Amino acid sequence: MTDNAITPSLMHYPWQKAQWQMLDDLAERERLPHALLLAGPEFVGKQQFATALSARLICDFPLAGFACGNCKQCLLFKAGSHPDFLRVEPEDSGKAIRIDPVRELGQFLGKTAMQGGRKVVVINPAEAMNQSAANALLKNLEEPARDTYILLVSHELSRLPATVRSRCRKVTFPLPSHDESSRWLAQVTAKSEGLAELMEYAADRPLLALRFLESDLLQQRQAFEQLLDKVSSGAIKPLSAAEQCVNTPSVMAVDWLYNRVSMAIKSGQLGSEQVMSFRFLDKLVQVKKRLFSTANPNINLLWEELMLDWQHLSR
C-alpha cells in the first residue's frame, strides 16, 4: 500500500513535514511528550496537524507514519465517535473556554481507555481558556495518566499562561513561504489569476486565502480596507465608519487593522508616528483580548474608539 492510500484528512500540510517527522519519530520510540503546544499564526494548518497526529496516535496500524484510515480506530475517529478522543473548544467562536469542559477533560483522562489504546485531547485554541480553566488544566499537565496525550493549539502564545506553557513541549509552526503557499493554493483551487492579491490580503496564510476564496470574506476585507482609506482621507467620519464595522466579524477585522498598521510601519508610510503606531498595535492586542473575554464589550463603542485612533494615526 502506498502513501496515496492514506486518507488526506489524516495527513499534515506540505509545509509541516519537519514538525511531523520529529513527532512521528518520538512516537515510534515511545518518547512523545504527553503535552504538546502547537504554536504559530492562525490559518497555517495547526488544527489539521493536531487532528492528523491524534488519529496517528490512536490508529492500530500506522502506515508510513500516518493513521491508516481503515482500522477500527480510524473508522471511529473519522466518524467523530471515537470514545478515547476529546476535542475542547469554545461553545461559540471567539468566546472563552470555561472551566466545566476542562473539568470534564480531567474526568475523561482519568478513566481507562475504552478501546484499550491511547487517549488524546485537543484544546483549540488553548489561549481561549479563561484563568479558571487554565488552572484546572494544570493538574492534568503535571500528573499525566499513562498513554494520554494533550495537544494544545495556540494562535497567540502570549495569551497562554506561563504556567501552562512551561509544562508543554512547544512545537513551532511558522508561516510557510509565499511561494509554497501560492503553489499549494493553486493546486487545491485550480486557480492562477488573482492569487498574488489574495495572498497579500491573507498575509501569506494559505488557509485564510482558501477561506477567502470559499466565502465572501475577501469582499468583506476589501470593503474594510476601502473604509480605512476613506477615514484616512476624511471622506467619511470615524463614527460613521464605526457603524459599518459592527456587522463585520470583530476579531477578524481587528486582525485586518493590525495587519494594515504593521504594513504601514514596515513601508515607512507613518514616518515620525512610529511610536504612536506601536502603541496602537498594543491597543489592538488588548482589544482582541477583550473580545475573547466574557466581558461582552460594546462593539459599537469599541469601533468608534478604534476608528478615531486610526484617523489620528493615518492623517
UniProtKB/TrEMBL annotation:
It catalyses: DNA(n) + a 2'-deoxyribonucleoside 5'-triphosphate = DNA(n+1) + diphosphate. Signal peptide: none annotated. Gene3D superfamilies: P-loop containing nucleotide triphosphate hydrolases (3.40.50.300). Keywords: DNA-directed DNA polymerase, Nucleotidyltransferase, Transferase. It comes from the Bacteria. GO terms for biological process: DNA-templated DNA replication. One of its GO terms (cellular component) is DNA polymerase III complex. The keyword Zinc does not apply. Its EC number is 2.7.7.7. InterPro entries: DNA_pol_HolB, DNA_Rep/Repair_Clamp_Loader, P-loop_NTPase. GO terms for molecular function: 3'-5' exonuclease activity; DNA-directed DNA polymerase activity. PANTHER family: DNA POLYMERASE III SUBUNIT DELTA (PTHR11669:SF8), REPLICATION FACTOR C / DNA POLYMERASE III GAMMA-TAU SUBUNIT (PTHR11669). This is DNA-directed DNA polymerase. It comes from Porticoccus litoralis.
